[in-house]
Amino acid sequence: MMAKNKAEGGILDTIKTIVWALVIAGVFRTLFFQPFWIPSGSMKDTLLIGDFLFVNKMAYGYSRYSCPFSACPFDGRLLASDPERGDVVVFRHPTKNVDFIKRLIGLPGDKIQMINGVLQINGKAVEMKPEPDFEEVMQPQGPQGLLPRCSNSPVGMGDTCIKKRYAETLPNGVTHDILQINNDGPVDNTPVYTVPEGMYFFMGDNRDNSEDSRFPQSVGGLGFVPKENLIGRADRVMFSSAGRSLFYFWTWRPDRFFKAIN
């Protein structure tokens, strides 16, 4: 009888330990840092497919999207702080129940436009400095097996895929790399977008391969993003793997471990 009671007590203790571990993990994920894995190439070369990072959820305060399954029982934001232009931000897509990661380009009241592939903010072109081309191997990337797009297409499997790279400097002095395939694509020349109050305008650094605010929601795109939808700021890549699984250690990218995100 005692052996049975000991066994039952051991099972109960194990269940309690698991429950408490889940509670602690849930609190940590809700209040402090949320893991995020990069599934697409829309933020190259700042973020690569297979980068793993933690999102700083304290940066902008908390909304209902801060909780798993959007379960926080309040509207608006608590302990709110405003993001800065140039931040790399994880947010909830306004019409799709998925998290996106993009760079914050337009603040409330800004006028944003693209002319021949050059970003215009409030009627002034941002500074763009040519940098060495971005090169990668033409091969399937990540678990989805995505193929990169190249400015030197057509490119055979195993050959070098090239994109033009520029250092773009925003009005507040934030400088970051962007990639371009050409400067006459469908979102390289746009109308003027005026960012409404309480909204933000986001773009991917891989300018010709990004679903972002240049695509209005009326055509199924991202459009403007409400402040409430911000989840947190991406500050540092913790781990990175170029393979289809994290267990393929020969595809790990040690040079990206603990890399700061600019």
Distance between the termini: 63 Å
**CATH topology call:** Umud Fragment, subunit A
Task: Look at the structure and give the mean pLDDT.
Answer: 88
What is the N-to-C succession of helices and strands?
HEEEEEEEEEEEEEEE
Q: Note poorly predicted spans.
A: 20-25
**Total discrete domains:** 1
Report on this structure:
With 262 residues, the chain is mainly β. The chain has a single domain (32-260), classed as Ribbon (Umud Fragment, subunit A), CATH 2.10.109.10. 11% of the residues lie in helices and 32% in strands. It is built from 1 helix and 15 strands, in the order αβββββββββββββββ. The protein has one helix at 2-31; strands spanning 33-37, 51-56, 88-92, 99-106, 111-115, 118-121, 124-125, 127-137, 160-169, 175-180, 193-194, 199-203, 225-226, 230-240, 259-260. Strands 1, 2, 3, 4, 12, 13, 14 and 15 form an 8-stranded antiparallel sheet that branches. Strands 7-6-5-11 form a 4-stranded antiparallel sheet, with no helix packed on it. Strands 8-9-10 form a 3-stranded antiparallel sheet, with no helix packed on it. The longest helix is centred in the N-terminal third of the chain and has 30 residues, at 2-31. The protein starts with a helix and ends with a strand. The model is unreliable at 20-25 (pLDDT under 50). Its EC number is 3.4.21.89. Residues 12-237 form the Peptidase S26 domain. InterPro entries: LexA/Signal_pep-like_sf, Pept_S26A_signal_pept_1, Pept_S26A_signal_pept_1_CS, Pept_S26A_signal_pept_1_Lys-AS, Peptidase_S26. It catalyses: Cleavage of hydrophobic, N-terminal signal or leader sequences from secreted and periplasmic proteins.
